[in-house]
Design brief:
The protein is of the alpha/beta class. The chain is built from 17 helices and 16 strands.
C-alpha cells in the first residue's frame, strides 16, 4: 500500500499569521496544542503520513509534495480556508474540509473543496481516506456522534511544542448539555455531553506534565462523571485548568473534589449581568445576582476566575460597559474575555436574527467576536464596537493588571499566577495593542455612549 501524504492545515487571520517557521506574531498564551488537529491525525488509518501546519506558527508551503490537503476551520477563517483551497486545487491537489463552519454550511463549503467532513472526524476520516484511495471520494460525509471510548491516543511529535502555551492538553468530555442560543460549540455537539472512560483519561494524564489543561466545553456538564474523574485524579498531584459553569461554586461536594484534584483556574461564561439576557439566551443555571459571591467562593478555594462576557444583547444599553467594569472590579475577576455578540451560522441566534433581518454583514471573516455584524436594539453599531474595546482597554490597563496580580498572591497558588493569570493579562495587553483595541477603546465616552475625538491613544 502506497503512503499518502496529508497536510492538515489550520488557517488564521492575517494579523496573527506567521511569516516564517518559528516566527510567531501573537502571544503564546492564546495558542494551545492543536488538540482537534491531533484528533484528526489520530483517526487516520495506516499508510498516512500526516503533517500539521498551523498558520499561527508557520507559513503554508503551497508547493508541498502532499497528496491530500485537509483544512479545518471555524466561521471567521472560512474566507482564508477558501483562498487556501483554491490555490491548492489550482495545483491539482485534492482538498477536504472539516470543522465547525463546514459542518453548519456544508453546501457552501463544498463549492470550494472536493469533500466535506460534517461533524466529528473519527468515524468519517477512515471512510474518506478509503474512498480517496479508490478514486471515489464523495462530496459530503456524515457520521453518528463518536463514542469517546473509541478515541485513539493522540500522536506525539507532530507539533512544534515550544510554540504553544503547553503541550499538556487533553479532553475528558465533549459537548455541553445546555442550550445557549449563541453557542456554536453546543450546537455542533447536538446539545449533549459525552464522556471518555475515566481510566482512559487517567492513563493519558499519567503521561503528561504536572500542569495540564482540559479542553472541555463544560467539564462538570455531567456531574456524576466529574466527581468520579476528580476523585481518580487526586493521587496524580496535577494542577489543572478548564472551563465550566459558575454554578460549581454552589456545589460543595463537586467544588471540594475539584480542589482536591488540583483545580487551579476556570474559564466561566458569565456572559451578562442582565438576567433578562441570560433567560433569552437560555443560559443554563446562571444567576447574575449571585456572581460576586460565586467568584469569591472560587477564590476562597484557590481557583482563578477567567470570565467571559458578551455584549450587545437586546437588554443591553450603553450603560452596560461601565456597569460591567464596576462588577469586574468588585468581584475581583482575574482575567476577562469581552466579546461582541456574534450570531454564528448553525445557532438558533443566527436563525432568529437572520429571519428578523437584523444581520447586515455576512462577511465570515468578521465573525471573530471583534466586529459587529448585526443591528443592536438599544445602541448603535459604533457604540457596541467601541464599548467593548473600552472595557477591554480599561480592564487591561497597567494599573488594573498590577493591582490584580498583587491581590492574587493572597489566594492563588504561585503556579496559577505564573502559568495562568500573568500570561493571560500580559498577553491580552500585547494582543490589544497589536490589533488596535487599545486605541479604539480610547475613543469611547462611557458617559454618553458615543465616540469622542482624541489627540493621542
Amino acid at each position: 500500500m502506497d503512503t499518502i501524504r496529508l497536510d492538515l492545515i489550520s488557517p488564521t487571520a492575517s494579523v496573527w499569521r506567521a511569516q516564517r517557521k518559528g516566527k510567531t506574531r501573537g502571544p503564546r498564551v492564546f495558542r494551545f496544542s492543536m488538540l482537534p488537529s491531533l484528533a484528526v491525525a489520530a483517526s487516520m488509518p495506516e499508510g498516512i503520513d500526516t503533517r500539521i501546519i498551523d498558520e499561527n506558527v508557520e507559513p503554508i508551503d503551497f508547493d508541498t509534495d502532499a497528496d491530500l490537503i485537509g483544512i479545518s476551520f471555524m466561521t471567521f477563517n472560512a474566507p482564508r480556508a477558501y483562498e487556501i483551497a483554491a490555490r491548492f486545487r489550482d495545483r491539482g491537489k485534492t482538498v477536504i474540509f472539516g470543522g465547525f463552519h463546514p459542518t453548519f454550511l456544508p453546501y457552501e463549503a463544498i463549492a470550494h473543496c472536493d469533500a466535506v467532513c460534517v461533524g466529528e472526524a473519527e468515524y468519517n476520516v477512515p471512510r474518506m481516506i478509503a474512498d480517496f484511495r479508490a478514486g471515489r471520494l464523495q462530496p459530503i460525509y456524515r457520521s453518528d456522534p463518536v463514542d469517546l471510548a473509541d478515541l485513539p491516543p493522540s500522536p506525539a511529535g507532530l507539533l512544534q511544542g515550544k510554540s504553544y502555551l503547553t503541550p499538556n492538553v487533553l479532553q475528558a468530555t465533549r459537548g455541553c448539555p445546555y442550550k445557549c442560543k449563541f453557542c456554536s460549540i453546543a450546537a455542533f455537539h447536538g446539545y449533549r455531553i459525552r464522556t471518555r472512560p475515566v481510566e482512559a483519561v487517567i492513563g493519558e494524564l499519567r503521561g503528561l506534565g504536572r500542569q495540564v489543561v482540559f479542553m472541555d466545553d463544560n467539564i462538570i456538564g455531567d456531574r456524576d462523571y466529574a466527581l468520579s474523574l476528580f476523585e481518580a485524579m487526586i493521587p496524580l498531584g496535577k494542577r489543572w485548568f478548564s472551563q465550566c459553569g459558575i454554578h460549581m461554586a454552589d456545589d460543595e461536594e463537586l467544588l471540594r473534589m475539584a480542589v482536591m484534584s488540583g483545580c487551579g483556574g476556570l474559564f466561566v461564561g458569565l456572559e451578562s449581568l442582565s438576567q433578562e439576557n441570560l433567560s433569552r439566551w437560555t443560559k443554563g443555571p446562571n444567576r447574575a445576582a449571585e456572581y460576586v459571591r460565586q467568584v469569591q467562593t472560587l477564590h476562597e478555594n484557590g481557583i482563578a476566575v477567567y470570565a467571559g462576557f458578551v455584549f450587545g444583547s437586546d437588554d443591553d444599553t450603553p450603560a452596560v460597559f461601565e456597569q460591567t467594569l464596576e462588577f469586574l472590579d468588585e468581584a475581583r475577576v482575574d482575567a476577562l474575555q469581552a466579546t461582541r455578540l456574534t450570531p454564528f451560522p448553525g445557532t438558533p441566534l443566527f436563525d432568529e436574527m437572520d429571519e428578523a433581518g437584523r444581520i447586515f454583514d455576512k462577511d465570515w471573516s468578521h465573525y471573530d467576536f471583534g466586529h459587529v455584524v448585526f443591528e443592536p436594539l438599544h445602541m448603535s453599531r459604533e457604540t457596541l464596537d467601541l464599548g467593548v474595546a473600552w472595557i477591554s482597554r480599561r480592564f487591561y490597563s497597567r494599573r488594573r493588571v498590577a493591582r490584580r496580580l498583587a491581590r492574587q498572591v493572597g489566594y492563588l497558588a504561585p503556579s496559577s499566577i505564573i502559568r495562568g493569570t500573568i500570561p493571560l493579562n500580559l498577553g491580552y495587553r500585547v494582543r490589544f495593542a497589536r490589533n488596535g483595541t487599545l486605541n479604539k477603546g480610547a475613543r469611547f465616552n462611557p458617559s454618553t455612549g458615543a465616540s469622542r475625538r482624541i489627540h493621542a491613544a
